[in-house]
Amino acid sequence: MNRTGSLKTTLIIALCIVLMFGSVMGGVWAANLTVNMWNFAAGGSVIDFDELDRSPGIGIVNIVFIGIDDHGLADALMLVSVNGIDNTVNTLSIPRDMRISFGTRFGKVNEIYAAGLQDVRRGNITEPEEYVIRRVREFTGLPVHYFVTMQMDGFADIIDILGGVEIDVPNIGGRGGMFYNDPTPGGARINLTAGVQTLNGRDSLGFVRFRTYPDGDLGRIRAQQQFIEAFTAQHVTWQNLPNLADVFNEIYENIRTNFTAADLLRYGALLRDIDGENIQTFQVPGVPAYVGAISFFVPNLGQLETLVNDYFTLRIDTENIDAEYE
Question: Can you tell me whether residue 67 is helix, strand or coil?
């Protein structure tokens, strides 16, 4: 298991930066930020529907983070579990190539948001996130209380606001770096020479999206973990306090959520008390494999069930309870 992050962790990091600092800082700046948070959470981007589980207010609260690319695909999908009992955060990264059923056919999990949009057009649901949440609940067996959907272009803009990320670009396949050229109009262009350098927002997005690894999606996840380690070390600091208002504005323009202002403030106070050592990141267990002519990530459902039971559910200390009542 990895205790580092993934691309999908950028969604919660951007949110947590604002929450943690906004909840602990005094003065006019924090007051203005709180007003902006309230306006955001009271605006049209706050969405609610029956598919969501009601928040228990205590215990474990689960949040689904969805990162959407230019084609409407879920380029990033993650379940974040905040445990208010023991002050821990566990995250479950779901590989975009994971094989799942779409009724009469099988496909990749990155189609899940687009499938939700199709259900909206058919009049079956009101919001595409309803479909995403239903499938995540079916797959993990866990309740989902909140969601955050973010356009990935906002990720690049946040990196630019913070001044870039210094990272050691690997030499993939002996080609001298990370290179990819999508010939379709508007396709991705990744041109990163190997070595230590500071990546701007566009190049950072290319770094975490690069997929041409010998071991496929697993290599991509390793690179994403490398990136988030560098991002956290360099930017989750008090020195970046003056940039947080701009970061929040970028979040405001690029996300949809059912968080309310009260939720943001409540969980901001909780996250403030969570130590970095108590944040763990896991990936859905499984292996890359071809099914016919298509490359998938095939999940191991038995191992996933064990992982969920061990890290994403409340564990009662029966020994202490028994001793207390003897």
Answer: strand
Tokens of 143: 């309740």
What CATH number does residue 161 fall under?
Answer: 3.40.630.190
Q: What are the φ/ψ torsions at residue 97 (nearest 5 degrees)?
A: -90, 5
**What does the alpha-carbon distance between residue 224 and residue 227 come to, in Å, rounded to a whole number?**
5
Is 321 inside any structural domain? no
Asked if residue 319 belongs to a domain, the reply is no
Q: What's the domain count of the chain?
A: 1
Query: Which tens digits make up the pLDDT trace of 61-115?
Result: 898 988 888 788 898 888 988 887 887 888 898 988 999 999 889 999 999 999 9
CA distance 9 to 249: 19
Tokens of 121: 């057009």
- Give the domain extent around 94: 9-300+307-312
| pTM, full prediction | 0.73
Tell me whether residue 122 is in a domain: yes
Residues 6+ apart with CB under 8 A from 309: none
- Cα dist from 44 to 60, 246, 256, whole Å: 27, 20, 9
